[in-house]
Structure formats: structure tokens, C-alpha cells
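Something for you to look into today, if you have time. Just paste the record in under my message, thanks.
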Amino acid sequence: MNDMTTMEDNIVNFIFDSIFSKSLRPGIKLSESVLAKEFNISRDTVRKAFSQLQNMGIITYKKNQGYFVTTLTKQDTLDIFETRNIIEAGVITSVLQKFSEGKIDLSLLKREVETEKFFKISLRNGEYVKSSCDFHLNLALLSGNDFLINALKPLIPLSILAALVYEDENTHFCSYDEHANLIKAIESNNIDYAKSIMNTHLHNCVDVLNFNEK
């Protein structure tokens, strides 16, 4: 790797992929020394990656015990997406208004959908799930409303964790198709229609989760 930041990002991606593949499960303890040896890097680099994951809510630090994969219950997950639905209705309203006034460009979002599709087709599952959830944060950023952005920001990584842990491996759900539909809904300049598309999409994100797996 060319620099420490790149290596830290690779540790983060490794953790996401490990959670998605079920080799890391909620509540399991993470070892700095094991990862440092596995990647032939310093424990300080691993610790910095853990700090990123902790800030995202993906892992939790317990004093005198170490780092653990965060545990989200079914009710936690339902509450997260219910809150997101409320916030993102406001996001859609704000973004559509700005788009109708010609103040924002949706081309970046469209490119992100293509990237998301590439990750899915390439079976880069951890990156796909992250890309899928980050689409919503980038949509919020277009609103320019710091209150909406800051309200949504902590919910995105928790949604990622829920998707990584509970996603049904047999589902044919493709978020990039629905994200493309969201963009078209914004371009329609119909607020009620766009909000209904967002509502349906977030409900679909929950419906594909399998809470029965222990």
C-alpha cells in the first residue's frame, strides 16, 4: 500500500466484508494484534482503523476489554429505518425544490449508482452495502440543510451494519435500481411521488432483512 490511510481503509473494508460474510458477528471481539499480524502492519494503524469504525458505530469499545462488533437488535433496526423515513422525506422535499430551481446537479448521484451496481456485480459485498447506504447521505448533502444532514449522518453507518448482519443472502433486491428510480422521481418535479418512492425504497430495505437468523 502507498500510504497509511489506504491501509486503514483496507482494514475498514476487511471488517465490513467479514461482517457481511458472517465470519464476524455482532458481539464478537476484535483483536488488534491478530489484524496487525495478518496485514503485516503496526497495531497503531489497526487502532486508527478501529477508531474510524467506532466513530461510525460499527464497533464499540469497552474499557479494559477492547473492541467489539456492535450488536443491533431487530427493534433497533426498525427504529433506525423509521427515523430515516421521517428525515429522508424532508431530504427529498428539499432536494427536489433545489433541483426544480436549477440549483443542483444530479450527475454525481447517477455516477454513484453505476459504482454501486459495479460493486454488486463484482461481488464486492461490503463495499456494495456501504455504497448503497452512502447514496442516501450524498443525497442529503445536496439539500444543503445541515440539520437534515447531521440528523441522518449517524443513522447511515448503523443501517450499513444492519444490512451487513441481517441481509438475506437469497434476496434479489438491488438497491441501485431503486436509487435510479429515486433520481427519476426527483427529476419528475412531483414531491408527493418522489416521497412515496423514497418511502417504498426504505421499506424494501427492511423487508429484505432476515431477523430469524441467530
